[in-house]
Amino acid sequence: MFDKLFEAQQKAEEIKKRLDTISVSGEAEGGRIRVSATANKHIESISIDTELIRVENKEELEELIAVAVNKALEQAEKISQAEMQAATRDMLGGFGNMFGQ
């Protein structure tokens, strides 16, 4: 049983490493603001069209950045959940074999 738990822990580490290599992105204002992140929800870059950078636009710009960040993080969450579900199915299949099922 401990072998299976150790295997599950190793699998989780493998998934985390794989999620670090997957890029996701979110956009707002028709792509004028772009956010890139890893599937582990680490923001890698934010790109803002220079036309949007004006002092009188500050609140709107902040809102658009939040929208783009949230879209990127939503994609990251979906990928992360899919990876974890696949690992859980694999792990549960192993536990079933352990109990003769």
Helix and strand arrangement:
Blueprint: H1 2-21, E1 23-28, E2 33-38, E3 43-48, H2 58-98
Helix pairs in contact: 1-2
Explain this structure.
There is one protein chain. This protein has helices at 2-21, 58-98; strands spanning 23-28, 33-38, 43-48. It is α+β, with helices and mostly antiparallel strands. The chain has a single domain (2-98), classed as Nucleoid-associated protein YbaB-like domain (Ybab, Chain: A), CATH 3.30.1310. A three-stranded antiparallel β-sheet has the order 1-2-3. Strand 1 (23-28) and strand 2 (33-38) form a beta hairpin. Helix 1 packs antiparallel against helix 2. It starts with a helix and ends with a helix.
Can you tell me the CATH superfamily? Nucleoid-associated protein YbaB-like domain
Number of strands: 3
Helical percent range? 55-70%
Calculate the mean pLDDT score and round it. Answer: 85
Given the helix and strand composition, which structural class is it? alpha+beta
Overall body shape: rod-shaped
Count the DSSP helices: 2
- Percentage of residues in strands: 15-25%
Biggest sheet features: 3 strands, antiparallel
Q: Do you know the CATH topology?
A: Ybab, Chain: A
Radius of gyration computed on alpha carbons: 19 Å
Distance between the termini: 15 Å
Q: What is the CATH first-level class name?
A: Alpha Beta
Stretches where pLDDT is under 50 for at least 5 consecutive residues are none
CATH architecture: 2-Layer Sandwich
Succession of helices and strands: HEEEH
Our count of domains comes out at 1
Biggest β-sheet: strands ordered side by side in the sheet: 1-2-3
